[in-house]
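Entry under discussion copied across for reference:
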Amino acid sequence: MIEGLRMPDAKMAAAMGAYRIFVELCRDGCIVGIGSGSTVKRFIEVLDVGEPAVARSLYYATSVDTAIHLSSRGLRVLDVSMLMNEKLLPDVYVDGADEVSRELNLIKGGGGALLREKVLAYLSRRRIYIVDASKLVDVLGTRFPVPLEVVPYTLPLVTRSLESMGYMYRVRSGSGKLGPVVTDNGNYVVDVYTGPIRSPETLESKFMSIPGVAATGIFLRTLVDTVIVGFEDGSYKEVVRT
C-alpha cells in the first residue's frame, strides 16, 4: 500500500483494485475520466504520483471537487473543452455507484454530478466502477432514489410530470445553505422514489422524455465494462460485463 494511506476498508479495497487495473491499462500514461463522490476520493488517494501510469496521464474531472482533489495530488486536469479533440477522448473512466444490479445496470448521481459523469462514461473506451458490497442489489431502486438533473426553468413542468406518473420525489436541498442543490452545470437535482425498477431501459426513456430533464442517474449496462466490489476484510472482486 502507498505510504500514508489509511488501513483498508471496503471502499479502499475497491479503490486499490481499480488502481491495479488502471496501472495495467495505462502503463505509459493515458487520458482518464474521473467521477465524483466519496469512493472516487479513495481512488484519488491511492494514486501513486511516482508511478509513470499516473504521472504521465491527463485527467478529466466530472466536478469542481474532483478537479481540486486531482490538482492537490499534482495531477494535470484537462478542461472539458478538450473533449472536442478526438485524440483526447478518455481511454479509461473511473467512478463510483449508489446501486449495482446483477445485470450491471447502475444508479448514480448521489454526489450531484450525474450529467457530467454520464458524458464522460459515454465517451470513454473502458468504464470501471468501484463500490463496496453494500451497493449490490438484485433490482435497481431497492435502496436509492433515481436522481434527475433538471434545468431550473423547467422544474415546475418536471415535477408535475412526475406527479402525473405517480412518483414521489424530492428536490434535493443543500446541506450548507438554504435552497436547492445546484450542480456545476447550474441545474437542480430531483430525487425520484421509484421503488424496484423492473426495466431500467424503459424508465430511462420515460424520464428523458420530460422536457428539461438533462440526465438521469440510471446508467445502463452499455455504459459499464467492469465493477470492482470491495469487502470489509480488504479483499475485492472484479465483475466484468459479458
In short: The mean pLDDT is 94. The helical segments are 10-25, 38-46, 52-55, 64-72, 114-123, 155-165, 200-208. The two ends are 31 Å apart (CA to CA). The CA atoms of residues 21 and 128 lie 9 Å apart.
